[in-house]
């Protein structure tokens, strides 16, 4: 990166690799998180490529069923914990101090520790491919008793999950401490930009649920090695208990992945509508309500385990309730464009695709909440379509929108707009070719997590695979665009966009190594 | 350059058109949606699914309509100037909070009655115990002593091996056929008890509208029925990841009129010990 050397006079900074190994600067750490996440996105994408290639036509052509299960499991673990979550942490590192007018994150050493923990966690997790028995193959949900049939990968996978959890918790503590203590004078909580707000709430979710997940996998570990029977019916345990505990973590986890994207979209839509967000306070309260509700809906992931009638009704109703604050957000984003002056730069294109396609995922979510129908949908491709709609054109498009929005601020260069638009249109078209037919497959009766299927599912699987290949190739454009932008390009102004709004646009582009060493006044 | 671009654009459009034209050629539109199924229960569930689908379509029409209208009407290239004062509207915000609540209550209510129906196990005439194994099913007609295993049919099992060289298209009911199907009577309520021997499985036949997990160490319950006028063969699959061959433990159910079923069960009772001895 071509930072001007005059930025460095306050503290000398080593050059080259040593800089990246020793840095505690929030921008460097943010960059490392983002690069790490891009790498994991490509690795997870490669796993998806294997999955969709095998499913291109009926019959087993490329991989064994056992390896196929390793692919689905590792695709999920890598994408959730390696790509989406670290990308949001990278953005938090870069942008929260700059949005609230702080000089750095509050706890820089813990910050860098959490990054390196994560890097080693993934080294460990990916190394399981070399173990006898291969990588974990029980699905990322790790349901016992199946997960207890894992080979030697098992303790490594569990330990890497512990490391990821510790890393996430540290990242979350850092965000909370930074936001609570280091806001510039005048930056009251209800003046804070929505991206920082969404992360503050996400951080509380992380702190609440990561220990629960760590506890659940530790119980698996002792069941495996020390003959405890937490999840073994023969010893007085209950396999379903694991599912309850897992989803008590797992449902807030899906909001951990989407809330930062909500925050990003809430930054971008106002900028390119040239007017502030509609209903700011309602947006904050909506995020908080979603976060609260995320704790009381977990069992909707497991209606088929057989629950009492009252339990099923409770989880249906609480789940449907989430649609209310989510609807508020969608309507407020629409109202932000209303009577605005809307233009369609790449960040806005991704934010708009998010708005439409996330809503489609919301609709299928609503349908899944209705228990009797869920008995049909559960564990089919309908579910796969649903969560990929909220995760890919939801979270991932939100993250890409963020990259297109803030990259000129990070690198000091404008990126290739034409290439960005190609990337957008190819991604937006192919993501639908990829995931929309999966609704049909699920409704027609195709279970998820199968390596081979009956002839009647052949057509839509082929379409879906073509979509996957197109979507995957389009992401190579994204990588190329980022490399080009880092290396050079038209110089970006401080404001970058037509209607910049917020403290991050008051500092030069690229943002100096140290920003806001003297806190700005916010009015 | 411009020519190249035009050619590129045209070939992309042509490819898209070709892809679209190829699609419906074989598409059976029944494969786009949930089957209505063959019992009152499955039809109720299908009805609920369609109701929700249409509610979502109507909501989508309005919300997407508003988004598209805003994108077109208020675009900068058309000279739109942002109205910096349109940032709050208490009535509007109250409306789009309260109306969804009402819609959601409207969507949830019809499911209550169906759920009560699903959970009501009373009045069943026969009980079948289903045990999931890695990777086959076991069926036991409680009280009759008839019990047998049901595995993926041999033709499918050979064809599905990697590098078998057999085109799945020529295998009849590829992956959805078993050596010995479950046989049930039509027109009666059948209680199913589900459990598993090793890991969690799930028993699912889409035409019956229900699936439920088979959990080792626990017994789950559900009921199914097949309309009296719809005897036939119905197929499904295991619906909970259960290891390497999760995709290869199908379910086939033959529904027969009651007298035929009774005759079949009687025959099994006498044949069972012999068959049992033969397989052991």
Overall description:
Chain A has 523 residues and is an all-alpha fold. In chain A, 67% of the residues lie in helices and 0% in strands. Chain A is built from 15 helices and no strands. By secondary structure, chain B is of the alpha+beta class. In chain B, 42% of the residues lie in helices and 21% in strands. Chain B has a five-stranded mixed beta sheet. In chain B, strands 4-10-9-6-7 form a five-stranded mixed beta sheet. In chain B, strand 2 and strand 3 form a beta hairpin. In chain B, helix 2 runs antiparallel to helix 3. Chain B starts with a helix and ends with a helix. The model of chain B has no long low-confidence stretch (mean pLDDT 88). The interface between A and B is large, with 96 and 99 residues.
List keywords for this structure.
heterodimer; A: 523 residues; mainly alpha; 15 helices; globular; disordered N terminus; B: 280 residues; alpha+beta; Helix Hairpins; Immunoglobulin-like; 2 domains; five-stranded mixed beta sheet; 5 helices; 10 strands; 42% helix; elongated
Distance between the termini of chain B: 75 Å
**Taking Cα atoms only, what radius of gyration of chain B do you get, to the nearest Å?**
26 Å
Helical proportion of chain A? Answer: 55-70%
Largest interface: A-B, 96 and 99 residues
Number of strands of chain B: 10
Provide mean pLDDT of chain B, rounded.
88
CATH C-level label of the largest domain in chain B: Mainly Beta
Got a strand count of chain A? 0
Terminal residue distance of chain A: 34 Å
Spans where pLDDT lies below 50 across 5 or more residues of chain B: none
What is the CATH T-level topology of the largest domain in chain B? Immunoglobulin-like
Largest sheet of chain B: 5 strands, mixed
Strand order of the largest sheet of chain B: 3-2-1-5-8
- Any idea what the radius of gyration of chain A is? 23 Å
Strand-and-helix sequence of chain B, N→C? HHHEEEHEEEEEEEH
